[in-house]
Write a structure and sequence with these properties.
It contains 17 helices and 8 strands. With 326 residues, it is an alpha/beta fold. The protein binds hypoxanthine and zinc ion. Zinc ion (ZN) binds next to strand 1.
Length: 326
């Protein structure tokens, strides 16, 4: 209980959050009804029961299905506003949110509809709660680089609201090298660069993300620890890892949170952070992730403070804003 209160009171940033992964079953039903979309579940309980995953792909199949209820600007707004209210309750002061435009444009939803709904909620949260935000557009790596290039083209009118690009979806078989050209173009446009790497994929994918995509941050990065030279490099370069404990457990990246590498990461001097990834699907928002990993590894207050500080250090806030939080 004492630890719970301590975690709750820590000001923190969340750096790894897929907004479509914050769609709670209750809102899924509401939007399905609002938009006349059929969903293959009879109740909220049935939806939750379907959230049993053996690996990343099991989850992705149901994640892409779930986002099918999102149609209008209001839907994207309501989704984002609900997440921001939860984040505010967890004492989150800054968020860097991923969205998956290709998951929507493929269904005929306009890129501008998605951006307008998300950014309206972000603006409201800054006014109401003082939560600042960055928006990161992810490319789906199971699709082609040409498809990613077309998505970047669609984003050009909205670059005043997009701070970075990322890479998500099915990792194994879709290495960062597949997207080298589109990330080079994104970089030339001044966008920050992140990529999911080393969640299910090998350490070589983390090397590629660093050397070929020139990432500013690695999402997950767990498997980096299999490569001591890579681990030393990540520490020396101060590359932030956005670690997601409950996600790792639910997607069987770890068998047991007691075997989670977070403490090893901190011990190796890595800028590791704690994040919720897809909280509706993985069973908890950011404080629940801190709590679960702190309980499993018996993390000290000093370690929890380091994790919360790392979330600002690793953020894309400017130095002045970082200094205000640190
Ligand atoms: N990994 C890859 N793709 C994703 C994830 C993830 O954890 N969440 C949403 N898309
Ligand atoms: Zn993720």
């Amino acid at each position: 209980a004492e630890r719970t209160a301590f975690i709750a009171g820590l000001p923190k940033a969340e750096l790894h959050l897929h907004i479509e992964g914050s769609l709670e079953p209750e809102l899924m039903f509401e939007l399905a009804q609002r938009n006349g979309v059929a969903i293959p579940f009879a109740s909220v309980e049935e939806v939750r029961a379907a959230y049993a995953f053996a690996n990343l792909q099991d989850f992705l199949d149901i994640y892409y299905q779930g986002m099918g209820v999102l149609h209008t600007e209001q839907d994207f707004h309501d989704l984002t506003a609900a997440y921001l209210a939860r984040a505010h309750a967890d004492h989150v002061r800054h968020v860097e949110i991923f969205f998956d435009p290709q998951g929507h444009t493929v269904r005929g939803i306009a890129f501008g509809t998605v951006i307008a709904g998300i950014t309206r909620a972000l603006d409201e949260a800054e006014t109401r709660h003082g939560i600042t935000s960055k928006l990161i557009m992810c490319f789906l790596r199971h699709l082609s680089e040409a498809d990613a290039e077309a998505t970047l083209d669609e984003a050009l009118p909205y670059l005043d609201r997009i701070d970075g690009v990322g890479l998500d979806s099915s990792e194994v078989g879709h290495p960062p090298s597949k997207f080298q050209r589109v990330f080079a173009r994104a970089r030339s446009l001044g966008l920050k660069i992140v990529a999911h790497a080393g969640e299910e994929g090998p350490p070589a994918y983390v090397h590629e993300a660093l050397d070929l995509l020139k990432v500013d941050r690695i999402d997950h990065g767990n498997r980096s620890l299999e490569d001591p030279a890579l681990t030393r490099r990540l520490a020396a370069e101060g590359i932030c890892l956005t670690v997601c404990p409950l996600s790792n457990l639910k997607l069987c990246v770890v068998d047991d949170l007691a075997a989670h590498p977070l403490r090893v990461m901190l011990g190796a001097g890595l800028v590791a952070t704690v994040n919720s990834d897809d909280p509706s699907y993985f069973g908890g928002y950011v404080n629940a992730n801190y709590q679960a990993i702190a309980d499993a590894l018996d993390l000290s207050r000093a370690e929890l403070i380091t994790l919360a500080r790392n979330s600002f250090t690793g953020s894309f806030l400017d130095d002045e804003a970082k200094a205000r939080h640190l």
